[in-house]
Amino acid sequence: MNRRPPLAGALTFNRLKVTSFIHSCIYLALLVSAFLAGNPQPLTFLLGLAHGLLWIAMSLACMAAARMRIVSLRLAVAVAVLGGIGPFFGSYEFIRAQRRHAFPSGR
Fold this sequence. Notes:
Blueprint: H1 13-36, H2 43-67, H3 73-82, H4 88-102
């Protein structure tokens, strides 16, 4: 009996990519709020909380997706390890992976 993992239907490359870009936008808003807008509270706190929770969720989701071979291990590591510092790394890796699959001839 071949059972699918419970998250197999929810985890898709495109959903993870969109979530990664949303995470990057939240992080950019956090940087702007904290450094350019004078650190207004509670906005900076809420953006920081959203960034932290999204980073944890994205890390777990990408590691699960790597086990299911939805994303590469390289992409999952970029999201999990570098995503806490800057989720732009993960978004870049999603674009890179998508381009690599669109042009499999090595272009």
